[in-house]
Amino acid sequence: MRLLICRPQPVPEQSGVDRMPNPYFQFKQFTVYHDRCAMKVTTDACLFGAWCAAESQRSTSIGQRFLDIGTGTGLLSLMVAQKNNGIQIDAIEIDKEAAMQATDNVKASPFAAAITVHHCDITNWEKGAYDIIFSNPPFYEKEIPSTQQGKNVAHHGEGLRLESLFDIIKAKLTDTGLFYLLLPYKRRHDIDKQLQQTGLFLEKLVVVHPAVENAPFRLLLKGGKRLTPTQNESLSIYDAARAYTPEFVSLLKDYYLYL
């Protein structure tokens, strides 16, 4: 008798759950290793990457120059590149180990020609304007910092404050370009304040719930320099039975192995 041994797909780390993640996450078209990165592959990051890819794919008038601020593992760039042919992504990462791991992940993928990882500080990056800017930036300003410096930069915004991020987006975005951000729901007031101060405008705002019965915990933002009516939407990752919602499946089915 021949035994078939199947290797299960590692599950992305759930945001807010403190546990040791798997060293990699296998997607349908690429693999993301994250053992050398402070920012791991999380469910909300995967959702954001799929949403960015889908939204930018619909923006047919947008050019081909994309900027990923704080690429970490390279996850977002890989997800966006899978859905957008002919684009060029500059993926910026300040942490050396993370930049090296992102480079390895990109080189091992089918999208190596579309993504260039740069180990540098975004505040020192000078390479013209971009048509699309996306970022999963540090979340936890003004909260108790970690004892690990890498996690402080990745999670607590020591290297890039929210106001600085919006200033950078304003400076590096073309007049008709779009930005996409993943931010905590509790920062909504700060986000509105920074948008007003920088003269940027929201085109779409998606409130994300972990499950249908839970309070919101994330915001997906799409915006630019042009004033347009804001589309307001909501999305839940899990339904009441703890299964992925149809909206989540629709976004992730081209990425997750078992969807």
Shape: globular
Order of helices and strands: EEHEHEHEEHHEHEEEH
Q: What is the terminal separation in angstroms? A: 30 Å
Low-confidence stretches: 1-9, 16-20, 140-159
Give the beta-strand count. Answer: 10
Instruction: Note the total helix count.
Output: 7
> Strand portion, in percent?
25-35%
What average pLDDT do the residues reach? 87
User: What is the helix content?
Assistant: 25-40%
Major β-sheet profile: 8 strands, mixed
Task: Report the structural category.
Answer: alpha/beta
| Cross-sheet strand order for the largest sheet | 5-4-3-6-7-9-8-10
As a whole number of angstroms, the C-alpha radius of gyration is 18 Å
Task: Give a quick set of tags describing it.
alpha/beta
Topology:
Blueprint: E1 24-26, E2 31-33, H1 43-58, E3 65-69, H2 75-83, E4 88-93, H3 96-107, E5 115-119, E6 130-135, H4 149-155, H5 162-172, E7 173-184, H6 188-198, E8 201-211, E9 218-224, E10 231-238, H7 246-252
Parallel strand pairs: 3-4, 3-6, 4-5, 6-7, 8-10
Antiparallel strand pairs: 1-2, 7-9, 8-9
